[in-house]
Design goal:
With about 375 residues, the chain is α/β, with parallel strands linked by helices. The chain has helices at about 20-40, 45-80, 105-130, 140-160, 165-180, 180-210, 215-240, 245-250, 265-270, 295-300, 310-315, 335-340, 360-375; strands at about 5-10, 15-20, 80-90, 90-100, 260, 280, 290-295, 320-325, 340-345, 350-355. It has three domains: about 5-160, no CATH class; about 185-240; about 245-300 and about 305-365, Roll (CBS-domain). It has 13 helices and ten strands. α2 (about 45-80) runs parallel beside α4, α3 (about 105-130) packs across α5 and α5 (about 165-180) packs antiparallel against α6 (about 180-210). The structure holds zinc ion (ZN). Zinc ion binds near residues 68, 72 and 158.
Length: about 375
């Protein structure tokens, strides 16, 4: 989805962000509910009360989407996966995880937790609707009825078996459990998801042609589901091609380093004499402290003030250091690698052994595809 989300809160240590599109939805639905739903349900309601209840209904929906995402987050944490952030956007929410569930059962519990929370919320509002006395104000009844309706819609939508919807994850986990082969499960689930995506596009387009504006939204969601499924499949192919390759097989060695107490002028000279765009920063004992990137130097003010040393501006994120024996695919889960595009390969006592970059991985992938084309194999085991 376009647009960066902005953080609004931190709940149980997890940052919660809102996509700008969510604000558009808030305004749109407040308007629709205030303009037509509440005036039809509650006779003689004032415009202020009607729009006020419209806004209240959307904020309640917001809370229920948030609870749904926390359902996922709590299960992820229980399986030892950190939740980096929760984003609320057009279709609901999305939890960004550091890592992936390692077993089919974990993935299944993770995927099912959110819909389970939504089902409970729908059931609670349904029970309230049942026990409301006949004398209850019409406005209260309308608010409760809308929450039942919207949570049931949310539940059904989330259970459509198309990735990235929860139903797609559940389908994938069930296939994974049965066949014990994640790659095959992802391919089958992606095929099912694509079929549902196209079904949504066709149904949406047909109902739009019949004059139903909602059809356009359905078609857009279908298009999004098709694209997301394709991206997921592409990523899976990358992981498959890189399976079993160790970091040290792709690194460039030896690593040219720079001392933490060197000046920025020294750093400029060091960059001039080698071809990489990063330098590992080392302490007096030669242990790696962090990474200095060429663009960090570019961002430094050119004149004025005391000039910093390399150690002061180095990126010291521990995620930059990697063990040469690690799987190359492990780098994809690292925010530090996503940010800098580089990792420093170190020995157990943090001595620099080499550097591995996104370009090295892309090159290995291209070679792997070439080999697959010429020899009908998709492995990248180096020839011995
Ligand atoms: Zn969910």
């Amino acid at each position: 989805m376009p647009g960066r989300s902005f953080k609004i809160a931190r709940i149980a240590g997890i940052p919660v962000g809102v996509n700008p599109w969510w604000l558009v939805i808030v305004v749109l639905f407040t308007w629709i509910l205030g303009d037509s739903y509440y005036p039809a349900e509650v006779h003689g309601i004032s415009a202020t009360a009607s729009y006020g209840l419209g806004l209240l209904s959307i904020l309640l929906l917001f809370a229920s989407v948030l609870a749904h995402e926390f359902g996922h987050a709590i299960v992820a944490r229980r399986h030892g996966i950190e939740v980096e952030e929760i984003d609320l956007w057009l279709l609901g929410g999305v939890s960004r995880l550091k890592g992936h569930p390692q077993r089919a059962g974990d993935e299944l519990r993770y995927a099912a937790a959110g819909p389970l929370v939504t089902a409970v919320i729908a059931a609670v509002f349904g029970a309230i609707a049942e026990v409301l006395p006949g004398s209850a104000p019409a406005a209260l009844r309308a608010v409760v009825d809308y929450q039942v309706y919207v949570n049931v819609v949310l539940l059904c939508f989330n259970l459509v078996p198309a990735f990235p919807l929860d139903g797609g994850r559940i389908a994938r986990a069930l296939l994974w459990q049965r066949r014990r082969d994640l790659a095959a499960a992802i391919r089958t689930a992606a095929g099912i998801g694509r079929a549902f995506g196209w079904l949504m596009v066709v149904l949406g387009a047909l109902s739009f042609l019949e004059g139903d504006v909602d059809g356009l939204l359905l078609a857009m969601i279908g298009g999004f589901v098709i694209m997301a499924g394709r991206a997921e499949e592409a990523q899976e192919q990358v992981l498959e091609a890189l399976a079993g390759i160790r970091v040290r097989e792709l690194m460039s060695a030896p690593a040219i380093t720079i001392s933490a107490d060197a000046t920025l002028a020294d750093a400029q000279r060091a960059f001039a004499y080698q071809r990489g765009s990063v330098l590992p920063v080392v302490d007096v004992d030669g242990r790696v402290l962090g990474l200095l990137a060429l663009d960090q130097l570019e961002r430094m003010p050119r004149a004025g003030g005391r000039l910093a040393s390399v150690g002061e501006i180095a990126d010291r994120d521990p995620g930059i250091l990697v063990d040469g024996r690690d799987d190359i695919a492990e780098l994809f889960d690292r925010p530090a690698f996503a940010r800098t595009g580089h990792a420093v390969v170190v020995s157990t006592d943090r001595q620099p052994l080499g550097i591995v970059s996104r370009t090295d991985i892309e090159r290995a992938l291209r070679l792997s595809r070439l080999r697959a084309d010429h020899h009908g194999t998709d492995t990248l085991a180096p020839d011995h």
